[in-house]
């Protein structure tokens, strides 16, 4: 196949999906490359032809593709266009996300030629409760680039797009004890009468009122001038404002961070198929 360009289409509030997509696209080595970032708005033109390669990268929320990512990418259209699927998850599990993304793109005219799950630092990770800190790291990004090279080599070899079966992507297993401990914790949380839902809190003493959080929020949950308040009806708990606050005034108050940190310490490697 004579591929002429690669377009990275992404949704990435804390930037880990973006890093993986860029490394894969870089590894592909096509001269023409561009990025369509759907983190802050719905891109206007997302139609692609058969000779263009698309790399789509999205985060995993609750074992599925982040719902807002699918909303923002709803207008994506392919014309038998080869597509590379990437889900990025916080070292717990990606569960249905790859299969869900595959159905999503196929119904829009794309042909899945490669798929992967990479690990990114968990959005809930903090200094006290670290979860996959610094991922994707240099080793992950080297893997991503090498995989990109393999994808380009495969596409150069074949005559026409052939879809792969994403079910053959093997999810890394969690140790049974950790898995059970996490499931029991979630069930216990759900049974509680007043469930402590994750929410962003702001330390008024630390906040410098710089307004960076307004720019970082993908959903407009923080209004200009009202930096100490986050609209919970809009907030998707992506932690873009938490991780990007220069004064470290914002934190996500969540009961899940300690248990995620405890249960999912073991490093998981990226899994890829093509
Ligand atoms: C609301 C929410 C739910 C999440 N659910 C999962 C999950 O089910 N499994 C997992 O391993 N990581 C989960 N994560 C972590 C993200 O998938 C991970 O941090 C990812 O790297 C974020 O991507 P981004 O940097 O592109 O925003 C979740 C994060 C958030 C904010």
Class computed from helices, strands and strand pairing: alpha/beta
Report the span from N to C terminus: 15 Å
Question: Can you identify the CATH class of the largest domain?
Answer: Alpha Beta
Ligand catalogue = flavin mononucleotide
Number of helices: 8
Helix content: 25-40%
How would the global form be characterised?
globular
Task: Count up the domains.
Answer: 2
Count the E strands: 11
Mean pLDDT across every amino acid position = 95
* The CATH H-level homologous superfamily of the largest domain: Flavodoxin domain
Description of the structure:
- Helix 3 links the parallel strand 7 (81-89) and strand 8.
- This protein folds into two domains: 5-173 and 268-273, Rossmann fold, CATH 3.40.50; 199-253, 2-Layer Sandwich (Alpha-Beta Plaits).
- The chain contains eight helices and eleven strands.
- The chain starts with a strand and ends with a strand.
- The chain has 274 residues and is an alpha/beta fold.
- Strands 1, 2, 4, 5, 7, 8 and 11 form a seven-stranded mixed β-sheet that branches.
- It binds flavin mononucleotide.
- Flavin mononucleotide is lined by residues 12-17, 59-63, 88-93, 120-123, 237-239.
């Amino acid at each position: 196949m004579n591929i002429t360009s690669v377009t990275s289409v992404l949704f990435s509030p804390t930037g880990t999906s973006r890093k993986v997509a860029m490394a894969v696209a870089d590894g592909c080595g096509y001269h023409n490359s561009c990025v369509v970032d759907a983190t802050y708005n719905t891109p206007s033109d997302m139609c692609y032809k058969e000779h263009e390669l698309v790399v789509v990268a999205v985060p995993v929320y609750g074992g599925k593709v982040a719902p807002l990512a699918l909303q923002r990418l709803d207008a994506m259209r392919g014309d038998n266009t080869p597509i590379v699927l990437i889900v990025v998850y916080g070292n717990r599990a990606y569960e249905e996300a790859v299969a869900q993304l595959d159905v999503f793109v196929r119904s829009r005219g794309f042909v899945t030629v490669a798929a992967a799950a990479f690990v990114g630092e968990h959005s809930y990770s903090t200094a006290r409760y670290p979860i996959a800190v610094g991922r994707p790291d240099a080793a992950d990004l080297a893997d991503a680039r090498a995989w990109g090279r393999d994808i380009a080599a495969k596409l150069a070899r074949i005559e026409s797009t052939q879809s792969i079966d994403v079910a053959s992507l093997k999810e890394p297993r969690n140790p049974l004890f950790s898995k059970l401990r996490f499931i029991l914790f979630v069930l216990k949380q759900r049974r509680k009468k007043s469930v402590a839902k994750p929410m962003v809190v702001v330390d008024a003493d630390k906040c410098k009122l710089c307004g960076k959080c307004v720019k970082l929020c993908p959903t407009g949950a923080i209004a200009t001038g009202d930096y100490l308040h986050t609209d919970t009806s809009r907030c998707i708990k992506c932690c873009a404002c938490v991780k990007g606050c220069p004064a470290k005034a914002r934190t996500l108050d969540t009961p899940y961070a300690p248990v995620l940190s405890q249960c999912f310490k073991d490093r998981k490697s990226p899994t890829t198929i093509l």
